[in-house]
Structures are given as C-alpha cells and as structure tokens.
Amino acid sequence: MTKRLLSLSNVRTVVLLAGVALLASSCSWGLWDSPMTTVRPRSDFGKWIDEIFMLISWTTLVIFICVESALLYVCWRFRDRPGAPIPKQVHGHTALEISWTIAFAVVLLIIGIPTIRIIFRTQEAPAATALRVDVSGKQWWWEFSYPDLKITTANELHIPVGQTAAFHLHAPDVIHSFWMPALGGKRDVVPHRVNRIVLTPEVPGEYLGQCAEYCGVSHANMRFRVVVHPKGEFEAWVKNQQAPPAESTDPLAQQGKALFAQSTCVGCHTITGVSAGQIGPNLTHFGSRKSLAANLVANTPDNVAKWIENPDHLKPGARMPNLGMTVEQSKALAAYLLSLK
Ligand code: CUA
After folding, report:
1. How do 223-229 and 156-160 pair as beta strands?
2. Is the CB of 176 under 6 A from ligand 1?
3. Nearest 5°: phi and psi at 320?
4. What confidence tens digit (pLDDT) does each residue in 242-289 have?
5. Atom of ligand 1 nearest to the CA of 215
6. Residue with CA at minimum distance from ligand 1 atom 1
7. Which atom number of ligand 1 is nearest to the Cα of residue 219?
8. What's the CA gap between 97 and 91, in Å, rounded?
9. 214 CB less than 6 Å from ligand 1?
C-alpha cells in the first residue's frame, strides 16, 4: 500500500516538473524573440557581444554538467550504509590539486581571450565614412543630432542599414545609459565625458531603446525608438528633416501656431522659423514622430493634448511645466504640432 502511494506521488512530481519545464521553455522561447531581446542581434556589435555570451553560456553549461555529475556520483557511491567503512581520504592530493588549478586556468583563458579581444574591437575609432550622431541623455528624454546633416530630433533615432554609425554619448545632467538591446549597443552616458558606440546595423526595422542606468524618478520612462532604414530610404528621411516643416492651413492648427508663438513654449523648444529654445526637444518635425514623451504613448491628438495639459501626470517629474492651458488651447496646440511633418 505504502509502495503504491509512493509511486503515485512520484508520478505526480514528474508530471508537475514536466509541466514547469514546458511552461519555462515556452516563456523563454517567447522572450527569445521579444522586442527587447539581446539574443537576436541585428548589428555587428550585437553579434560580437552575442558570441561572447554564447561562449560563456556553453562553457559554464559544460562545467555545470561535469560538476553536478561528479557530485551526484560521489553522493551515491559514498552514501552512508550500515557497517560501511569511512572512504579513503584524498586531502593533500598534490596531483589532483595541480590538475584542477590548471583546468580552471584553461577555462579562464577560453573565456578571457575572446572577451578582451571584443572589448578592444568595440572601442576602436570610427571610420571617416561613419555617420556621426551626437546622443544627449537628459532627464528624461533623448536628443539625437546629426552635426554633418544639420538635423536635430528627439526620442526617435534614424540610421541607414549597412552604414557604420558612430554615436557620441554625452549627458548634461546625470548619468544615463544608452541601450538598444536588439542592436547590441549599451554604454554609460556620463556628464563631463564623451563615450562612444560604433556599430553597423544589418537588418532594417524598428527597434526599442531604453535608458539602462537609474537616473531619477522617470528613469523607466526614458525610452526611444530606433528606425533602421532600408537602402535608399534614409536619404528621403534626411531630406524631409532638413526642410522647413510642412504646416497645415487648418484653422485649429493655425490657432495653435499663434498660441505657441505667444506662450512660454518658445523659450524651451525649437521649431525652425518659429522659435529657438534649447531646453526641451526640438519640435520642428514633431508630427513625423510615431510616439510622444520619450516613447511612452502614441503621437495622437488626444495624447498630445493630455500631455500639454499635465505633463507630470504622464511622466512623473517631467521638466516641462503645466502651463495652465485650457482643453481648447491644448487641442489647438496639438493640432499645430502634429501638422509639423
Ligand atoms: Cu536616464 Cu535612466
């Protein structure tokens, strides 16, 4: 009877463990291809990091299997039995001690040599043909400027596939970290110094980015989008960004424009031909962006109006003040800003 009960509980345990394993594997397969994945690299930089990650994972898996097998064997082989003698002691076995010291030195070399090689490779200076992008991490948004192209944008980074991009990272306020998981780039953005990431995106598409260093109350809301343009499309984007914004003649948008020009908005934001503020994001082509408030919400009239009415509600601690705009005024401003394509 006891034996039957035991076997029944064993079956239950096995079924439970199998269920957990299945669940874990399905979850991890989902994560494998999630928007913030780092194990599906889409750039040369990402592939180098992934190579090291895989090398370390496989090496440690082999070590894990060897150590656990030895442990299980020893536990079983030398288990306590009635009347069994004390096993032979190996304390002070010089040959064993020398061999495992050598074995672990070899493991360190297997991991260390490629890692150091990649550290140096990812620090190399960019080629003269690289596209330079100055990245400024601010509480809590990102400014991207292209000094050679005379373009400044915010929270939406555009780069062409197959061309090396050199990101020069600086922070005017506190330490941030610039991270584009799918492209492999992650590096601290530190006040009073310029760090660099140089990479060549290999697959066109839209990727997510995120600040990866705690930088204050809205750290988690400091996101951005990366658009890797297919061949030939980047030039069209550049041309559009360099041109003055196309404005709507819609009366509501025109009302918004007048309101913008009279309000304190102009002290913080640049709109080419209208204002020259430098504190907040450049809004010249605001309507061409897909998201708002550092990639928190979609760039729709409703969301823009709500943001203007109370920025702090959407992004706690936001530097943009509540200007006391009425609902109608916010709607007019949103219509104007979204018309800036
Ligand atoms: Cu910026 Cu966290």
Report:
1. parallel
2. yes
3. -75, 125
4. 999 887 889 999 999 999 999 999 999 999 989 999 999 999 999 999
5. 2
6. 176
7. 2
8. 10
9. yes
In total, the chain counts a number of residues equal to: 341
User: Separation of 23 CA from ligand 1 center, angstroms?
Assistant: 33
Tokens representing 327 are 């609902």
Q: Which amino acid is at 176?
A: H
- Using N-to-C axis directions, what is the helix angle for 301-309 and 327-339, rounded to 10°? 130
Q: Please state, in angstroms and rounded to a whole number, the distance separating the CA atoms of residues 176 and 211.
A: 6
What average pLDDT does the chain have? Answer: 91
Structure tokens at 274: 């209208």
Helix, strand, coil percentages (3-state) for the chain, rounded to 5, are: 45, 20, 35
Q: What does the alpha-carbon distance between residue 164 and residue 259 come to, in Å, rounded to a whole number?
A: 42
185 phi and psi angles, rounded to 5 deg: -80, 130
- What six digits make up the tokens of 244? 């003055």
Task: Indicate the DSSP class of residue 287.
Answer: G
Give me the residue label for tokens 């310029």. Answer: 194
Distance 17 CA to ligand 1 centre (A): 40
pLDDT tens for 311-323 read: 999 999 999 999 9
User: Span 147-153, mean pLDDT?
Assistant: 96
Tell me if 199 CB under 6 Å of ligand 1. no
Question: Which pLDDT does position 117 carry in this prediction?
Answer: 95
For ligand 1, the distance from its centroid to the CA atom of residue 46, given in whole angstroms, is 21
Helices marked H in the chain: 2-32, 44-77, 94-121, 233-242, 251-262, 265-268, 301-309, 311-314, 327-339
